[in-house]
Amino acid sequence: MFGLILRECKTAQLGSSFFSQMKYSLIHKAKKYKKILFVAGVLFLLFLIARSITSRPAVQYSDVRGNVATAKANKEINKEFLFSLKDAKDKEISKIKFLVENAELRDEIIVKGQKATSIKGRTFFIINLKITNEHSSAIEINTRDYLRLAVGDNNEWFAPDIHNDPVEVQAISTKPTRVGFPIDDIRTKFRIQIGEIAEDKEVIEFEF
Prior knowledge:
This protein has 208 residues and is α+β, with helices and mostly antiparallel strands. The chain has 2 domains: 1-60; 73-207, Immunoglobulin-like. Helix content is 25%, strand content 40%. The protein has 1 helix and 11 strands. It has a 4-stranded antiparallel β-sheet with strand order 1-2-5-9, with no helix packed on it. The protein has a 3-stranded antiparallel β-sheet with strand order 7-10-11, with no helix packed on it. Strands 3-4 form a two-stranded antiparallel sheet. Strand 3 (108-111) and strand 4 form a beta hairpin. It is elongated, with a radius of gyration of 43 Å. The chain crosses the membrane at residues 36-53. Keywords: Membrane, Transmembrane, Transmembrane helix. This is DUF4352 domain-containing protein.
């Protein structure tokens, strides 16, 4: 009888130990799976975030700059002049290259960053220039002092009303600029007088 009870107790202990081991194993596996699922969830979330960032359309910026009408007439000139660069004692220290590129007739121009439009019956006569400074220091030049315009057979010489003076040209560099004249909107003969104020002038005559 005692032996039977002892065997039953051992059997009960073995059964209890087995179930305890099974329970521990299941809990351990559950924790392990939770960790795996957590890591997988984090990786999936990171994947979705990265995909949403890379799939966003590129930001597009609209060009809000205004357009200026093209020249309605153009005449190539491409003539270069040399003018003296003098110091305070009126001594020549270098030469200024003064390139007259072309002349244009325009109904629209930009003046101080703003669009200017000619009124009916009027237009803008524009002369495009390039000033080259070969001196080792920056200079300032009043381009309107070097050009005059006569329209048709008229011998009245007009100074530019449109300009960027004083034009600053850095040392050993070239600066594009322009001068302009408001004129009647006619296609006729034009004469440009070019030269220093107190020196001889050269006259270029042409029609558009």
